[in-house]
Amino acid sequence: MSVTLLAFGFATPALLGWLALAATPLLIHWLFRRRFREVPWAAMQFLYEAARKQSRRSRLEQLLLLATRMLILIVVVLALARPHFADQDLLARPSPPTLRLLVMDCSLSMGRLAASSDEVSSANLLETQAANRSKKTVFDSAKQTAKEIVQRGQAGDRYLLVRVAGSEPRVLIQQPTANVNSVLDEIDRTKLTFERGDVAATLRLLPELISRKRPDERCELVVISDFQSDNWSGVLSDQVNVGSNAELAALWKQLSEEQSLSLMEVGPSAAENATIASLRIDSPLLAAGQQTLVTATIRNTGSAPLTQQRIDWLLDGQPIGTRFIDLPLGQEESVATEFSAPASGEHVLEMRIANDALAADNTRWLPISVRSELRVALVNGRATGRPRDAATFFVEQALAPALSLATKASRGVASAWLRTQTVTEPDLTQLDLTAHDVLFLCDVHDLSDVDVERLRKFVEKGGGLIVSLGPSHKKERLNESLFGPHGVMPIRLLDPISMSASASDAVPSPFGFDLTDDLHPLLREFRGNPGAGLGAALIRQYVHAEVLPPNAAQTSAPVEIALRYSSGDPAILSQSRGAGRCVVLTSAVDESWGEWPIWAPGFVPLMHELVSFAASSDSANERLIGEPFVLSFVDESDGSMTLIRPNGERQTLAIQAAQGDSAIVIRDTTQPGIYEIGRESGTSRRRRFAINIDSRECEPSRLRAADLASSSRSSDRKVAANAASAQFAQAGETSSADNLSRQLLFVVIALLVIEQCLAWKFSVGIVAALLVLLGVGIHFVTQSESSITICLMVCVLAGCLWFAFRWYSWPATRIR
Amino acid sequence: MTQTLPYFDPRTLSKLNGVALHARGTVEGAVTGAHRSPFQGFAAEFAEHREYAPGDDLRYVDWKIFGRTDRVFVKQFEEETNFDCHVLLDASESMRFRSESATLSKLEFAKHVAAAISYVVVRQQDACGLMTFDRELLDVVRSGSQTTHWKQISHVLEQTANVGGASRETSPTLLTRTKLANTKLPYNDQPPRVLEPILNEIADQLPRRGIVILLSDLFDDAESLAKGLQRLRHRRHDVRVWQIVDPAEEDFPFDDPTLFQGMEGWPDLPVEPRLLRNAYRREFFAHRESIRRQCRSLRIDFELLRTDAAVEVAVKRCLTGSMRQRG
C-alpha cells in the first residue's frame, strides 16, 4: 500500500509513525534544562559579562544543534519509509507529451502465482486449479502495473499496447490513442497465453510503432515482464552473438538508446513448481493388451526442493497409477509406470502432478493409437517356379510364424496380430493399399508411375513402406520412379558391389553390418544385445546407394542411414514422409546375395523390427503450443471436418490444397490439451492430437531488469518493481524509491558528521556543513555520488586532525 | 605564644624563617631600624654637605672643610628606621567563596596569609597593622612591632570570620522549576563598587608611609580599583596587591547545567557551563590583566595566590617575588 504525502508517496507508510522520534532530542533537552545544580558563585561579574556576550550566539548554536539532531531522526524515518515522488504535477517541469509504448509479457511464465501458494495435494486437480485461478498471478500484477502507468500519465500522453507472445496478434492497440479508458479496457482484455514469449518477434515490431510518434512527442518504452531468461537472454549483448541473437541484441540496444526505457520487473513468483518436461511410451506400436512402459520426465522448476510430489497417470481420464517422488532443486527425474494397452482405437494418455505455482505445466497429454492387428503386404518382384526362390520367401517365413511384435515380452498376444499377404509385382496395381499397414517390396524391378504415386500417398497417409533389392532390380528404372523426384525417398542407386569386386585379398570375404554403439531407433532391440545375431550376417553383394541433396521444395524429413555395412556404405535407409515411413534395405532379403536369411539369427528379429518401425508414426500426434498441426490427404468427398478443441469448442475445418493433395492445417494451437478431428457425419475414426506446453518456458531463471537496462548506454532508463516507485511523466526527473532512500541515507550520514562537529565546536560544524554543501554541489554537477562521500571523508579526516592537534597542544593553549 | 593563636600555625610559620619583607623605597619609622628613613638627620650614616644656615647645630659643622675653604658647611646624615606594614584584608562576601575542590575559602586563606605576613614583619622588628573591610572599614589594628601584637591581630582575624555568606557554602542542590522561572538576568543592574572608597578611607587613616599589602579577590572594576590604589601610592605607600582566587574561579570546572547563585547582591544566573566556559575565562583573565597593567603603571607589586596552594609557599613566593621586582 502506498500513501501519498504532499509530493511524495511512501512504499512503507507505517514507518512514518516513527517520526514522533524526532521529538526525542527536544524532550531530552527539556528534561535536562529543568535540572540545575545550585552553586554559590563569587565571580558573577565575569559570568554575567560572558553570558551577555555569548547568550545570543550560544542560543543559536543550541537551536541549530537541536534542529540537526531532530532532522537526523526525521530523515532516517523518511528513508526507511521508502519515499518516491508521487505527484508529478508538483514536480512540474514543462515536458513534451509522451508516446508510451507498453510492452506486456503474456508468455506462460507470467502465469505463476505471485504469492506463495500452499502446497496442494488434493486428488481433485480440478478443484485445485480452480483455487489457483482465484489467486493473483504475476500476470495480474503486470496488468495492474500497466494500468497504474496509464493512470499516472499526464494529459496528452498517447499509448500503444504490444504483447510478448508466441502468436499473433502482438500489437493490441494499433494506433496511438490518448483515450485512457480504452487503453485500460484493452489492458483488462489482455489474456495470458500458454505460449513461449517470442521477444524477437515483438521487438521487431517496435521500430515501426515508434515511428508513429509525432514530432513534438517523446517516446517512452515501458516493458513489463518477469524477464524469463530463456525468452530474454537473446537481447543481452554479452550472449552468444550469432545469427538472430546478434540481430536481436543490436535491435534492443537501438531501442533502449533512442528512447526512454523503463523496465518493470513483476513478481516475485511463488517458490514451489514442478514441470512435466516430456511424456513418452516405450513401444512405438501398441497392440491391444500389450504391456508397455510410459515414462515421464519431471523437472523441479521452482526455487525450493519438492518432497512427496504426487504424480498421477490417467488413460482416457481413468487413473492408472499414482506415485510420490522427491525432487531436489533444479533436478529432473524420469518416472515410469507400466500399463496394459486398452482395446484398439485412439486413446489419450495423460499425466498430472500436484498443483503448484504454475498450473499449466502440471498436465501433459499423449495420444496413443492401439491396433488390433498389423497387416503386411509382401510384394514379390521375382517370378520363379519354386517358392523358395521367391524374393519374399524368407520374409514371409520370418513374419508369418511370428507370435507378435511384442513377443519379446511373451505376454500371450495372439499370433493373429501380424497378418501377411503375398502378392506378385504385377498384382500390386490391384492391391488395396488401404487394407494394409505395411507394404514390403522385395526385389521389385519395374514399378509404373501410377504404382509409385499410389505408394507415395500410401506412405504420406501413414503407411509403412519397406523396399529391399535383389538380382532382379533395375536401378535406372527405380531411380526414375521409386526413388526419383516424385518417388518415395530421395536416394540414387549406384552399381552393385559384390564381394569379389571389392575384395583385394586372395580369399574374398563377405560384408557384415557395422554395429556401432549408437544404433538407430529402428535397431533399438539390438542395442546392447550382441547375441541377437545381427553381427553374424554375411552378405555377398549389395547396391551402393547415395542420398540425394535435399530439395528446397521438399517438406519431408531428411533421409537417415540406420545401418551401414562393414565397408561403410549404407545398408538401411529410412525417412519419415508425411504420416508414414519409408525404409530401404540395399541388399536382398533372400539367399540370392547372401545366406544371412538362413544362417544369421538376427534376420528374423530384424524383419520384425523393420515392419514395426515402418508401421509406427514419428510422434505425429503431439505438438507444442503454437506449432501448426497438418492433417494431410483428406478426402474431400467424405464431407466436412470438425475440430473439437480442449475447451469443447467446435470448429468446422477448411480443407486446403497442399502440393496437389488436400490437407487440413490447424494453426490456432494456443491452448494445451487434446484436439479431436472428425467428420460431422461419418463414423470413421476420429483423429486426436495433443498440444503440450513448451517446458523451456517454465524454467525459473530470470534476468535482472537492471542487467537488461545496463546493456544500454542511455542515461534515461529506469528499473522499477512497480509503477508506484517510478515516475513516467518527466524525463530525467524521476528516481525510484530506492534511489531516493539511498540519497536520504547520504543526507543522514552528512547530518551525523555535521552534528558531531557542531557538538564539538560550532565553527567546525559550520565548516563541515559547508564541505557537505560543496559535495552536494559537485554531485549535481558531475552526477557522481562519490563526490559526497569524498567530502564526508574530508570532514571526518579534518575533524580527526583538529582533535589530535588540540589534544596534544592543549596544555600550551590553555588559557591562564 | 604563636602556638595558641588562631591562624598562627607554628609549623607553617616555621617554614617562613629566613624570609623577610623589605620596603621598596623609604619608609617612615618611629625607631631606628634596618630601613631607610625619608628624614635626613644626624644619625649614623653620612649623606651630604650643606652650607651652614643660622640656627644649625654647630656640632655638625665640618671643620675640615672650613679649614680648607673658609666656608662653613654642616654634615647631613641618612636616618635608618623601621617601617609600618599595613595588611588590608578584604572580608567581603565574595571572599567567603570556597569551591568543592578547595580546602579553604578565599577569606580563610587571606587570614592565614595576613597572619604569616605579620609574623614575618614583627619578627624582623618592624611594625605590622591590620585593617579588615568589606563595604566599609570593619576593624583596625594599629601597627606595632611587639610580638604581643600578634594577639591583637589574631583576635581581629578570628572576629572577621563567619560573618554572612554561610548559606552560600552549602552543597549544591537541584533548582525547582518555579525558582528557575523567577530568575532574571539583570546585566545592567550591577551592584555598586566598593574598593575605591574603602581604599581612599584607608589611605587617609594611615599616619605614616609604609608598606600596604592588599589581600583581596579584586572582584571590582579595574579602573575603580586603580583609583584606590593610586590614592595609596599618592601617599607614598609601598603598595603590594595580592589577588586571592579560588581554583574553580580560574578553571570554571563545570559541565552540567548550573544555577550560579550570585554573592554581593548579584542575582542568580542559570548557565550551560560548557557553552560559556571559554567566554567566562576570557573575561576573568582580561580583568586580571587589566589590574596587573594598572599596578605596573603605579609601580605596585601584583601577586596571585590560589587557595589550593600552601599558605607558606604562597607567602614565600610573593615576598621573594617582591624582592625580585624591587631589584
Overview of the molecule:
The complex is a heterodimer of chains A (816) and B (327). An 8-stranded mixed beta sheet of chain A has the order 19-18-20-21-27-26-25-23, with helices on both faces. A 6-stranded mixed beta sheet of chain A has the order 7-6-5-8-9-36, with helices on both faces. Chain A has a 5-stranded mixed beta sheet with strand order 11-17-16-13-14, with no helix packed on it. The longest helix of chain A has 37 residues, at 44-80. Chain A is elongated. Chain A has 19 helices and 36 strands. Chain A is an alpha/beta fold. In chain A, 29% of the residues lie in helices and 27% in strands. Chain B is built from 10 helices and 11 strands. Chain B is α/β, with parallel strands linked by helices and 327 residues long. Chain B has helices at residues 10-14, 63-69, 106-123, 149-160, 177-181, 195-205, 222-234, 247-251, 273-297, 311-326; strands spanning 35-41, 45-51, 73-81, 84-90, 127-133, 137-144, 211-216, 238-245, 258-262, 269-271, 301-306. Chain B is elongated and about 85 Å long. In chain B, the strands form 3 sheets. A 6-stranded mixed beta sheet of chain B has the order 6-5-4-7-8-11, with helices on both faces. Chain B has a 3-stranded antiparallel beta sheet with strand order 1-3-2. The chains are: A alpha/beta (816), B alpha/beta (327).
